[in-house]
Amino acid sequence: MPDGNFEASAKVTLLGAPIDAVSMDETVARIHRFLDEQRQHQIITPNSEMLREAAKNREFRDVLSRSSLNLPDGAGLLLMARLTGQRLPYRVTGTDTLQILCRDLGPEYPVFFLGAGPGVAERAAQELKARNPRLKIVGTYAGSPSESDAADIVARINAANPVLLFVAFGAPRQEMWIAQHLSSLTSVKVAMGIGGAFDFIAGVQKRAPALFRSVGLEWLWRVVREPKRIGRIWNAVVVFPSLVARYGREAP
Hints:
This protein is α/β, with parallel strands linked by helices. The chain has 12 helices and 8 strands.
């Protein structure tokens, strides 16, 4: 288990949303510490598109402000932090965080996978179990972020008794769902929205090559492979930087 003795991380603020300036090692150490605490923690992985949404969605921005840890998932955040005289030294993605955690977790930290398409979370669980036979995944369920499904989902998770919950409903629905229902999940210590991570791990979607990710061109890879995402990419690479150039650290 990583060493939990570390100083509180510095934070930057973009469009009114706080982002933790953490490395991957610091992130994993902090999550392990959270898992051993009595209180519950929500972890969010903001990227440029999510901060664009938070700029116009006060409720979502409030959830970001209350979370225990906001990981700098998007390369655009590092660039915009520099533009506003701040510093985010590392990009820490939700997909990588999920895989590194599940690589090292033992059976004393049971995990539940919620979300993605039918059968995808199960396939991701099988892949991660193959990498770490000690990993204890106590449940998978596609479900939905619809409030009509919430009672059933909460009952399923409580029956499985996990301490760590990963939710793949897509942003901001997964973050809003966690914020609303975490207090009802009696065994869960840490809940984290992870977007398309199950799809990548299960092989349903191909992740951008490491070279594209390292130079901040993951958005270009997605446009080429999924042209229908052009609207979302526009928000991330054009609208978000424009908002930061205008408002900087402050909420619009």
